[in-house]
Amino acid sequence: MVEMLKGIAASDGVAVAKAYLLVQPDLSFSKVSVEDTAAEEARLDDALAKSTAELQQIRDKAAQTLGEAEAQVFDAHLMVLSDPEMIGQIKQNVTDNKVNAEAALKEVTDMYIGMFEAMDDNAYMQERAADIKDVAKRILAHLLNVTLPNPSMINEEVVVVAHDLTPSDTAQLDRNFVKAFVTDIGGRTSHSAIMARSLEIPAIVGTMEITAKVKAGDILAVNGIIGDVIVNPTDDQAAEFVEAGKAYAEQKAEWEKLKDAETVTADGKHFELAANIGTPKDLEGVHNNGAEAVGLYRTEFLYMDSPDFPTEEDQYKAYKAVLEGMAGKPVVVRTMDIGGDKELPYLKLPHEMNPFLGYRALRISLSELGDDMFRTQLRALLRASAHGNLRIMFPMVATLKEFRTAKKMYEEERQKLIDEGVEISNEIQVGIMIEIPAAAVLADKFAKEVDFFSIGTNDLIQYTMAADRMNERVSYLYQPYNPSILRLIKNVIDSAHAEGKWAGMCGEMAGDQTAVPLLVGMGLDEFSMSATSVLKTRSLMKRLSTTDMQELAKRALEDCDTMEEVVELIEQYVN
Ligand code: PEP
Ligand code: MG
């Protein structure tokens, strides 16, 4: 049956392909008594053999596509599977208690998991607990004859359908096969949406009901530019989507002509167009899209992609690679922003009711738990500074005291390295993200002490409007053009300029084609966005006159009461 759904357009592009359901299957079972315990043991052996073969395959694929280090987590799983003591206890449980293999497996693995989890100040033991959970689930699935989804093993063209995708699920998607993804929940600035843009995978989030409407094997037509999905489209509908895909490819080819062009407005004013990255690998996209700088390097992915804390040396190598890759152009590296939707299993953060308002980012760095981690990162950054044009940025700053404490730690590590004779650049700028309204309001005070601001609208909007950036039900309140947001942004830019500092923006609003004219008019100095938005923004800026945009910004700030009025005014000025 043909079904049409609408969601939030999260990453440009169009695709028509078979659906791949990335949803957890039902693994419920009942405990039953069995007479033939030998048969139960044979079922268990069969499930163990299948699990081993499957894990071996996943491990090999991970080693090929992600590297040996990432593949090692599967070695740990394979070790659990071949642990004679645990397997022996499961079989013993079957024979002694005459119960089915599912129940015996659960009892024994739960006992081990509980034991490891109880050693709660030991990260290694926590990981063992997580490994056993994972393996137990795989064996159980084989006992129940259900298939666990496995995004890393996709080997044909598909559209991935999921309730939600975490940033680490998204990182595993192979863009050669995954032509698009569609989720029930999420917003345009969820990290999975941001990653989809950097991977250039068309995506639609927040459809609310895609997993309920789609069965494995259904055909999906996806238009990530406007947020439309059709389940089992007619031939005509599919052809329409294919046409839209072609038109988008032509448009992209036009933008690509601007790759080496300067970013100047129609009246000749230059703006810096930068790109956001998550790993050194993303530099390819930065260069392909002609970005002039890296305006945000989200270093937390370095931590998330590693089974344990990355060492100072590992970090130094990553930062150096990015600085050298940018050959003297500015690189803004943000210190780790763990928390919110970016989890780090080995850090064992407590479960929180409101993770976006909780213990995250600089709050962790400045606490006892994060002290070592933060200093290690600062040292790695300072050492890497000799290889390029480094700017360091602290995330989630709410108070001046936080900035001063972080800056002091930075100065301490800097002095230690100088005493050790390490070469460090003299020109490192140290700035902050403005993503908490308190800092935006107090920008005049901050501006006296920082070297720069970068406005993180992804969070600034959610905190100002009290509307979760990942919640599709309140996405109507997530309003970048609301006059309240515009006032905050204007205050930040003016405060920076009053102290001779620069103000950039690294939230998704910087690449939002409706917002760009306003931001040009407000005098934002640097625009940092998903690399794939750089060329269309350069193309738009070429058509704008700064004097007209200044008038637009002034009128938007003075005359408009609502977001709708602002959008209408922008349309008048730009078209
Ligand atoms: C922001 O909040 O705007 C930002 C750029 O940071 P992140 O999206 O990583 O929270
Ligand atoms: Mg943020």
From TrEMBL:
<feature type="domain" description="PEP-utilising enzyme C-terminal">
    <location>
        <begin position="252"/>
        <end position="544"/>
    </location>
</feature>
<feature type="domain" description="Phosphotransferase system enzyme I N-terminal">
    <location>
        <begin position="6"/>
        <end position="128"/>
    </location>
</feature>
<dbReference type="InterPro" id="IPR008731">
    <property type="entry name" value="PTS_EIN"/>
</dbReference>
<feature type="binding site">
    <location>
        <begin position="458"/>
        <end position="459"/>
    </location>
    <ligand>
        <name>phosphoenolpyruvate</name>
    </ligand>
</feature>
<keyword id="KW-0479">Metal-binding</keyword>
<feature type="active site" description="Proton donor">
    <location>
        <position position="506"/>
    </location>
</feature>
<dbReference type="GO" id="GO:0008965">
    <property type="term" value="F:phosphoenolpyruvate-protein phosphotransferase activity"/>
</dbReference>
<dbReference type="GO" id="GO:0016301">
    <property type="term" value="F:kinase activity"/>
</dbReference>
<keyword id="KW-0762">Sugar transport</keyword>
<dbReference type="InterPro" id="IPR008279">
    <property type="entry name" value="PEP-util_enz_mobile_dom"/>
</dbReference>
<dbReference type="InterPro" id="IPR023151">
    <property type="entry name" value="PEP_util_CS"/>
</dbReference>
<dbReference type="Pfam" id="PF05524">
    <property type="entry name" value="PEP-utilisers_N"/>
</dbReference>
<feature type="binding site">
    <location>
        <position position="298"/>
    </location>
    <ligand>
        <name>phosphoenolpyruvate</name>
    </ligand>
</feature>
<keyword id="KW-0813">Transport</keyword>
<keyword id="KW-0460">Magnesium</keyword>
<keyword id="KW-0598">Phosphotransferase system</keyword>
<dbReference type="Pfam" id="PF02896">
    <property type="entry name" value="PEP-utilizers_C"/>
</dbReference>
<dbReference type="InterPro" id="IPR018274">
    <property type="entry name" value="PEP_util_AS"/>
</dbReference>
<dbReference type="InterPro" id="IPR036618">
    <property type="entry name" value="PtsI_HPr-bd_sf"/>
</dbReference>
<keyword id="KW-0808">Transferase</keyword>
<comment type="function">
    <text>General (non sugar-specific) component of the phosphoenolpyruvate-dependent sugar phosphotransferase system (sugar PTS). This major carbohydrate active-transport system catalyzes the phosphorylation of incoming sugar substrates concomitantly with their translocation across the cell membrane. Enzyme I transfers the phosphoryl group from phosphoenolpyruvate (PEP) to the phosphoryl carrier protein (HPr).</text>
</comment>
<dbReference type="GO" id="GO:0009401">
    <property type="term" value="P:phosphoenolpyruvate-dependent sugar phosphotransferase system"/>
</dbReference>
<keyword id="KW-0418">Kinase</keyword>
<dbReference type="InterPro" id="IPR000121">
    <property type="entry name" value="PEP_util_C"/>
</dbReference>
<dbReference type="InterPro" id="IPR024692">
    <property type="entry name" value="PTS_EI"/>
</dbReference>
<keyword id="KW-0963">Cytoplasm</keyword>
<feature type="binding site">
    <location>
        <position position="435"/>
    </location>
    <ligand>
        <name>Mg(2+)</name>
    </ligand>
</feature>
<feature type="binding site">
    <location>
        <position position="459"/>
    </location>
    <ligand>
        <name>Mg(2+)</name>
    </ligand>
</feature>
<comment type="similarity">
    <text>Belongs to the PEP-utilizing enzyme family.</text>
</comment>
<protein>
    <recommendedName>
        <fullName>Phosphoenolpyruvate-protein phosphotransferase</fullName>
        <ecNumber>2.7.3.9</ecNumber>
    </recommendedName>
</protein>
<dbReference type="InterPro" id="IPR015813">
    <property type="entry name" value="Pyrv/PenolPyrv_kinase-like_dom"/>
</dbReference>
<feature type="active site" description="Tele-phosphohistidine intermediate">
    <location>
        <position position="191"/>
    </location>
</feature>
<dbReference type="InterPro" id="IPR036637">
    <property type="entry name" value="Phosphohistidine_dom_sf"/>
</dbReference>
<dbReference type="InterPro" id="IPR040442">
    <property type="entry name" value="Pyrv_kinase-like_dom_sf"/>
</dbReference>
<feature type="binding site">
    <location>
        <position position="469"/>
    </location>
    <ligand>
        <name>phosphoenolpyruvate</name>
    </ligand>
</feature>
<dbReference type="InterPro" id="IPR006318">
    <property type="entry name" value="PTS_EI-like"/>
</dbReference>
<keyword id="KW-0670">Pyruvate</keyword>
<dbReference type="InterPro" id="IPR050499">
    <property type="entry name" value="PEP-utilizing_PTS_enzyme"/>
</dbReference>
<feature type="binding site">
    <location>
        <position position="334"/>
    </location>
    <ligand>
        <name>phosphoenolpyruvate</name>
    </ligand>
</feature>
<feature type="domain" description="PEP-utilising enzyme mobile">
    <location>
        <begin position="155"/>
        <end position="225"/>
    </location>
</feature>
<dbReference type="Pfam" id="PF00391">
    <property type="entry name" value="PEP-utilizers"/>
</dbReference>
<dbReference type="GO" id="GO:0046872">
    <property type="term" value="F:metal ion binding"/>
</dbReference>
